[in-house]
Amino acid sequence: MNIDANYKITANELQNKVILVTGANRGLGRAAVLDLAQAGALVVMLGRDFGGLEAVYDEVVSAGFQEPFLYPLDLEGATPQNYQQLQADILDNFGRLDGLILNAATLGTLMPIEQYDIKIWYSTMQINLNAAFMLTQFLLPPLKQSVDARILFLSSAVGRTARAYWGAYGVSKFALEGLSKTLSEELEKTNIRVNSLDPGAMKTKMRRDAYPAENADKNPLPSAKSPAIVYLMGEKSKGLNGEKLVIN
Ligand SMILES: NC(=O)c1ccc[n+]([C@@H]2O[C@H](COP(=O)([O-])OP(=O)(O)OC[C@H]3O[C@@H](n4cnc5c(N)ncnc54)[C@H](OP(=O)(O)O)[C@@H]3O)[C@@H](O)[C@H]2O)c1
User: How far is CA 140 from CA 7, 32, 192, in A?
Assistant: First the structure.
């Protein structure tokens, strides 16, 4: 299902919402933080690069938006205890969570399965899939405290149609699609809507790493895609559940 890239954010449409974004320090995560904050949300910014998180925090505050909450965590090494602590911190500070945006990802490496580096396979699966599973599991209690909550898994075209050499990245995105659909069925009768989103090509580090020879300027900036994420966190998208979304 297509989501309009030209969604117009209205002030305060996400007022009183608490929304957690992973990989919030750069790329699409950073753009989403700025747009969610513009729409009035209190954003919990999770990432491993504290300096990068602080720089985005400064951008949000100098724009006059609500002060975000910084949450430094490396998803590769994070343990169930770290996620338990995150759950406690969210419940203690806010009493609930209204949105969970599972955006952080690593490309791993592009090579045939026959030669794929096993350590890179493990780390890519840990960051892209296992961390998303554990974050979701531990954040379901605060999400259930919301009157209208969203979980959004950032996916990719290579997680919907297999492409040679995309290895662990592609496989992790296929698995995220399965996780999204399974969870959407399990939560169908609750206040939580669960969808996956392919944002399409964007001018970010990940895209540069995947396509080093292309002209990077042919791809839109992540800020051209992030308004759609505001739409997907808000009241107007309440009817969407278990969908494979794409931004057009
Ligand atoms: N760019 C595209 O063309 C494109 C196309 C389709 C789908 N997507 C998807 O869109 C999402 C955003 O992509 P992007 O292009 O914005 O990627 P990006 O610029 O490479 O940013 C990735 C983010 O994930 C974080 N991250 C990676 N490993 C982490 C770890 N171990 N712990 C915590 N955070 C970690 C990075 O933090 P650090 O700065 O610390 O590394 C960064 O904030 C991803 O899910 C991607 O798969 C992107």
Answer: 28, 21, 9
pLDDT in tens, 124-135: 999 999 999 999
Expressed as residue numbers, the domain containing 137 is 2-247
Q: Model confidence at 248, in pLDDT bands (50, 70, 90)?
A: confident
List CB contacts of 239: < 8 A, sequence separation 6 or more: none
Q: Which atom of ligand 1 is nearest to the CA of 206?
A: 20
Q: What atom in ligand 1 is closest to the CA of residue 22?
A: 34
* CATH code of the domain containing 43: 3.40.50.720
**pLDDT of 241 over the 90 cut:** yes
How many angstroms is it from 189 CA to the middle of ligand 1? 31
Segment 51-105, tens digit of pLDDT: 999 999 999 999 999 999 999 999 999 999 999 999 999 999 999 999 999 999 9
Ligand 1 centroid – CA 104 distance (Å): 4
Q: Which residues are catalytic?
A: 169
| CA pair distance 122, 10, nearest whole angstrom | 41
Which is nearest to 97 in space by CA: 39, 130, 140? Answer: 140
How many domains, the chain?
1
Q: Which residues line ligand 1 (CB under 6 A)?
A: 23, 25-29, 47-49, 52, 74-76, 103-106, 127, 154, 156, 198-199, 201-202, 204-207, 222
Helix (H) or strand (E) holding 194: strand 192-198
CA of 144 to the centre of ligand 1 (A): 27
Task: List the 192-198 sheet strands across, edge first.
Answer: 2-3, 244-247, 192-198, 149-154, 99-102, 18-22, 42-47, 69-72
